[in-house]
Every structure is written in structure tokens, then in C-alpha cells.
Amino acid sequence: MLAAVTAAALASWPAQGEGSCKGTIYLTFDTGSQSQAELVANTLRKHHIKATFFLANEKTIHGDYSLDPAWAPYWKSLVADGHAFGTHTFDHVYAVRDLPDGKIEVRPQFGAQAGKKQAWTGAQYCSEMKRVATRFHELTGAQLDPLWRAPGGKLTPHLLAAGQACGYAHVVWAEAGFSGDELPSDKWPNAVLLEQSLRKLRDGDIVMAHLGIWSRRDPWAPAVLEPLISGLEQKGFCFATLREHPQYRRTIPGKN
């Protein structure tokens, strides 16, 4: 079914000549189980396109964590490829709600306080975001871009203010850019997700996917990423990092 969807889609869209972009799509990837990390990197290299990665120190299929030293070669290779990088909070800290005293109730997914609700100030949340920047520099020698994405995309007014005060621009995704890679594959098969993305994505849309999801039985990236990129290219779309996005490039040094 997936092959039929892809073939039909490509047959109906005339190929565009090189340099004839009819719009730009911004691919973004959040860390996860890392089961698809190499596949994602290699697919992007094959198509010579750049994406934006949001990093948290998440448990991987190898039993380590995505910002452990063992992952330094991977992140260094992506830096060399010219991708952009933002913070996803070090311990993948979910916002729960704003508290009356100006603090934020949060729940880290990893780390010493995993699963426990905490009351944090904006400064504490800022420190959590900057932990990723520090580790990223230790691993790669490169600087993190001033971009962040709240785990689950869950924002509160206090949380958004904390990010702004910390110097990070928050990045959401377009409604059509929700890849669905974290949805159950029995209800949302890859062929359906691919068809929806190819049909709905428009110029300027930000797409969100992960470098592997523990819960999805039929992984998204091996089946969808390649035909999605090819299909969008056939429609005349080009790809760029968020460093080039009109809303975010003014926050990047040298891009405003």
C-alpha cells in the first residue's frame, strides 16, 4: 500500500528543475529512542538537505543516553553536515501547569527526579535548557542555536516567558507538520501518514518527527522519510534549517 501511495503521488507531480523552489519545508527531529538516528542522518545526506535537531538526554535503544559521550561522533557528523540544533531540555522536562506564585510545575522524564513533579522558577527552567547547550559544546565543540522546543510541545505562559528571558525562541510545528510518528501504527499506518503529509504540507511548514519512538511498533522513518522527501522534492519544495526560517532567523547571530 505504501509503495502504491508513493508511486501514484510521484506520477502526478511533475519534477521541477534544480533551483526552481516553489516553497520551503523545515524538517525538525527531536531526540527519542535513537533507533532511527543513523537512518535519518543518512537519508538527509542522500538528498543533500539540512534539518534542525532538538536535543534532550533521552534513554536510547543501546541502554545509554543520547547526550552521553558515546553519541559524540554522531552529533559531530551532523554538525559537519551543516544542520541546526536546539534544546529540548536536558531531562526532557514536561510542563504541567503554571503555579500561583509564578513558578512552573514540571515533570522530568529522565534524570534524578524522573517522574516526580517539581516546582521550578523560570531561572531553573532556563538552567535546564542551558544544560543541553553545555553538553552539546562538550561533545562537538559547536554552539547550540538559540532555539528550543518544549517536550510534548506543552507550553504555559510562565514557561514561554522563561524561554524568552533565557534567550531561546520556542519552535512549534505546523498542524500539517505533525508526522504522527508517535501514534499507534495499527490505527495510523505509515501509508496513511505519508499520504496526509504529502497532501497537506505547504510552503513554510515546520515538520516534527523523532529519532525513534519506543511505542510505535511499525517505525515511521524507514517507511516514510525517504518517500516524503522525494515526494516533496517532486512538488518543487526545497528544505532548510530553522536558521533560514523568517520567524527564527532574526534570533540567530548573523542571520537578522
What does the model show?
By secondary structure, this protein is an alpha/beta fold. The chain has helices spanning 2-12, 37-47, 72-81, 122-140, 157-166, 190-200, 220-234, and strands at residues 23-30, 52-55, 84-87, 93-98, 104-108, 118-120, 147-148, 169-170, 206-210, 237-239. Strands 1, 2, 3, 9 and 10 form a 5-stranded parallel β-sheet that branches. It has a 3-stranded antiparallel β-sheet with strand order 4-5-6. The chain has a two-stranded parallel sheet with strand order 7-8. α1 (2-12) runs parallel beside α6 (190-200). The longest helix has 19 residues, at 122-140.
Radius of gyration from the CA trace? 18 Å
Number of strands: 10
From N to C, what is the helix and strand string? HEHEHEEEEHEHEHEHE
Low confidence ranges: 1-18
Shape: globular
Structural class: alpha/beta
| Mean pLDDT rating | 92
Helical residue percent?
25-40%
Q: Biggest β-sheet, characterized?
A: 5 strands, parallel
Tally the helices: what do you get?
Answer: 7
Query: What's the N-to-C terminus distance?
Result: 45 Å
> Into which percentage range does the β-strand content fall?
15-25%
